[in-house]
Design brief:
The protein is α+β, with helices and mostly antiparallel strands and 413 residues long. The chain is built from ten helices and 18 strands.
């Protein structure tokens, strides 16, 4: 790769190379080679280690060979005992049952993860339901209508017969819902006008309503007006208070899908243990693909609220353990604006008992409690914020989305 070489110098050397010039070349005496290891294990946490090759030559040889082969290329009994212990300690060698399985969005049932508190689907007679005009069906390939709006690399489950994509006209969150074979056949019948929504199986109809596939006739007007008012009021709150709370950013079925997905990622060991800020009391995934997609879809609303030309910097999906304390702090430059979206509480608690985040704006301290699916927006680099100890027996999962001005010149991660 040319990225780390001076291009003109490199090509000049190639063009003028000869035995005499080659004889003058030496290996850079200051060369230092490091290996970065990343491992996951079921019911554990992801780990990253950086090792100097010169300090660990036998380990380096083993790792390079294993990475190239993709499997063990020698008998473990032939390994020197110190190397064997090192491989176990770094979780490079693990018991077969501990091997993490791939996790895909939409691969599990959602009913068990529907929130018991908070909003419900607005009542509407079955014969008054209509198809969401933003509906887009996806089979095995991403349809052209979604090109440029949805990354082709999202980890969607292949177990689904199809995916129904719908967009919330207020929050502008575009979201996929998995369809079983029966659900797909029912939806195709409605799309082709072969049957009305009122004749659908009740469970299928309720799923379509929860997903926003079937909506009331005034759905778009109601949602748009509600969010327009929320944005207008939110701008004023942001100026007055230094933060603004956004209620019901996610629908109950979206919350259920994200709760299920995050728990699967955590149980399979894809979260990395925090060793810097909330030491050993929270784990995280930075720029997890599906969460980064949600982060990017929120950009429009964040721009409206801040009246600023922002871009996403990075997303940070994190689960706090019981007793975790987030000390009072302000954030680094990559977090000029933060949105904290509450994804999951284990066990579920009411809004009145949810884990508060505190803000200090001009000496005035305010505590904010969020229900699952709610979010709070604030200036991360200017407003001190913190959380006191998470109550015993609770876990809390939060998606932190960070944004910076478009003129920002630093690294985005």
């Amino acid at each position: 790769m040319e990225s780390f070489l001076d291009y003109d110098y490199h090509n000049t050397m190639l063009e003028t190379s000869s035995e005499s010039t080659a004889a003058e070349l030496i290996l850079n005496p200051n060369l230092s080679v490091r290996l970065e290891l990343s491992t996951t294990a079921k019911n554990g946490t992801a780990d990253t280690h950086r090792l100097g090759v010169a300090q660990h030559p036998e380990l380096a040889r083993f790792l390079v060979a294993a990475a190239l082969q993709g499997e063990l290329n020698q008998s473990l009994t032939a390994l020197a005992l110190p190397l064997f212990h090192q491989l176990l300690e770094l979780k490079i060698l693990i018991p077969r049952p501990n091997s993490a399985s791939p996790v895909f969005f939409g691969s599990g049932p959602l009913l068990d993860f529907l929130p018991k508190h908070g909003s419900t689907t607005e009542p509407c007679a079955a014969d008054e339901l209509v198809l969401n005009e933003t509906l887009c069906l996806q089979g095995t390939e991403l349809p052209p209508l979604l090109a440029g709006r949805v990354s082709a690399g999202l980890p969607l489950s292949s177990e689904s017969s199809a995916w129904a994509w719908v967009e919330n006209p207020g929050s502008r969150i575009l979201f996929p819902f998995a369809l079983s074979k029966a659900q797909l056949e029912a939806l195709e019948a409605i799309v082709s006008n072969r049957c009305p929504a009122s004749s659908l199986d009740r469970d299928i109809r309720e799923y379509f309503r929860g997903a926003g596939i079937l909506v009331s006739k005034n759905y778009f007007l109601t949602k748009s007006e509600r969010w327009a008012a929320a944005v207008k009021n939110g701008r004023a709150e942001l100026l007055a208070d230094g933060f603004v709370v956004l209620r019901e950013v996610l629908t109950p079925l979206q919350i259920a899908a994200l709760r299920s997905y995050c728990r699967d990622l955590r149980s399979e060991g894809y979260f990395e243990l925090d060793r810097e800020q909330v030491v050993n009391m929270r784990s995280y995934m930075q720029n997890e693909p599906f969460m980064s997609f949600i982060h990017q879809r929120l950009l429009g609303v964040i721009r409206d609220l801040t009246a600023s030309d922002l871009i996403p910097s990075y997303s940070f999906l994190t689960t706090y353990d019981s007793g975790a304390v987030l000390e009072r702090h302000i954030d680094r430059d990559q977090c000029a604006w933060n949105v904290s979206l509450f994804i999951d509480s284990q066990p579920e608690v009411s809004l009145a008992d949810s884990w508060p985040i505190y803000f200090d704006v001009g000496g005035k301290v305010s505590g904010v409690r969020l229900a699952m699916g709610d979010a709070v927006l604030y200036r991360g680099t200017e407003v001190p914020h913190w959380r006191n100890a998470l109550p015993a027996g609770q876990l809390a999962t939060v998606l932190l989305g960070h944004y910076v001005p478009q003129s920002f010149e630093g690294a985005l991660d």
